[in-house]
Amino acid sequence: MPKLGAEPIRKAALINATIFEVGRAGSLDVTVAQIARRAGMSPALAHHYFGSKDQMFLAAMRYILRIYGDSVRESLPGRGTRGRLNAIIRASFAPVNFQRETVSAWLNFYALALTSPEAARLLRVYHRRLRSNLLVALRGLTDDPGRVADTLGALIDGVYLRAVLTPGPTDAAAAQQVIETYLNEALA
């Protein structure tokens, strides 16, 4: 007989194990058995909860996106004329969102979106929400909020890409400085 209440705990353990294993490998070239072992359960149980490795990874990305969204909401409304904008940037590079494993998961998420319609849909939702939030934050700060929002989104993606390709721990302060330098020039 299954333990009552164990399913959410086991799913969370599998999601965290997926993020860790993908981050460690730097790719989706990990097995369900590796993920399950990291989570302390059998591969059969992992398949029972998610069905496939891709479904586990998509659940992990939904979790990462939820944490990111929570980070943005916690940082809002922000202070000053750039308060909302600063809150989005702070959340993008907060320790919970900018650790090596999470950044590696993002990189692999983009790659999976090329072949998985479900990943592509989830990525489109993220891009639309980020752009919408940036547009609201940039209103009144620039004559062309669309251009600045698109460039800022691309810069954040680029900083994540460079961070995961650079050996050692991620450097959130340096990442934020790249974004701040661009914003100071774009909003001058």
- How far the N terminus sits from the C terminus, by CA atoms, comes to 65 Å
Output the radius of gyration: 18 Å
- Secondary-structure element order, N to C: HHHHHHHHH
CATH homology-level superfamily: Tetracycline Repressor, domain 2
CATH topology: Tetracycline Repressor, domain 2
Uncertain ranges: none
Q: Helix count?
A: 9
How many strand units?
0
Overview of the molecule:
The protein is an all-alpha fold and about 190 residues long. The protein has helices at about 5-25, 30-40, 45-50, 55-75, 85-90, 100-115, 115-140, 145-165, 170-185. The model has no long low-confidence stretch (mean pLDDT about 90).
Helices and strands in order, then pairings?
Layout: H1 6-25, H2 32-39, H3 43-50, H4 53-75, H5 83-92, H6 100-113, H7 117-138, H8 145-165, H9 172-186
Helix pairs in contact: 1-2, 1-4, 1-6, 2-3, 4-5, 4-6, 5-7, 6-7, 6-8, 7-8, 8-9
Short overview:
This protein is an all-alpha fold.
Features:
188 residues; mainly alpha; Tetracycline Repressor, domain 2; 0% strand; elongated
